[in-house]
Amino acid sequence: MELVEYPDAEMMMMDLANILASELKNCLLVHDHASFAVPGGTTPGPIFDSLCGVDLDWSRVHVMLTDERWVPETSERSNTRLLKERLLVDRAAEAVYVPLYAEAETPEEKLPELSEALTPELPISVMLLGMGADMHTASIFPGADQLEHALHGSDRLVAMRAPGAPEPRITLSANVLKSAMSRHLVIVGAEKRAALEKARHLSPDEAPVAAILNGTTVHWAER
Ligand SMILES: O=C(O)[C@H](O)[C@@H](O)[C@H](O)[C@H](O)COP(=O)(O)O
User: What are the entry keywords (predicted)?
Assistant: First the structure.
């Protein structure tokens, strides 16, 4: 794991947007398309705001979430909504969106079709992840009902419920996250930094983020 510390979060978000954009551009030099996976939650919005205006061939970028909360797009908690409002706008409106949500009561009902649609996107070219203070990443939560499956199974996509998550989740498995060609994790604040340090000494079963730290660049700013 490589840790990059920034003087402030605003600078970090702009730098990260540039890093991600140049990785996508490099990927497009040698491949037909680049797959780009990003988290939801409260942290990545400013990165999306910078990235969406970048001049690159967005029509060849396939954008997906690392995980989704099983709520309709009209919900404030929908990561799909965040993506559509903050990333898939401006120049990035040309990007191809690969959904991780479809209308249904439970994620299990849509798992086969959503998983199938991921086939041409793997391995992920460029990936950004977030992390919770409880050491979850994507929606691989400590104590989740499908934790073992998400960490050690061969499925690409896993539906799960966890004490720390108010609604059912769907998440890329650790297997898929680890196979991404380029991996970045973005965290803000002292609490998450302490959680990261703790996770480095724990097993993924206790600290799911530990599963992806090897080979990942972590970007951190205190505030
Ligand atoms: O849907 C989600 O919640 C995310 O994709 C999740 O993995 C997120 O990255 C972390 O929970 C951090 O969330 P914050 O950025 O809101 O702290």
Answer: Hydrolase
Residue spans of the domains in the chain: they are 2-221
Q: Is the ipTM of this complex over 0.95?
A: yes
Residues having CB within 6 Å of any atom of ligand 1: 39-43, 66-67, 69, 79, 130-132, 137-139
The fold of 2-221 is: Rossmann fold (3.40.50)
pLDDT at position 164 over 90: no
Which atom of ligand 1 approaches the CA of 41 most closely?
A: 16
Please tell me the distance from the alpha carbon of residue 191 to that of residue 91, in angstroms, as a whole number: 35
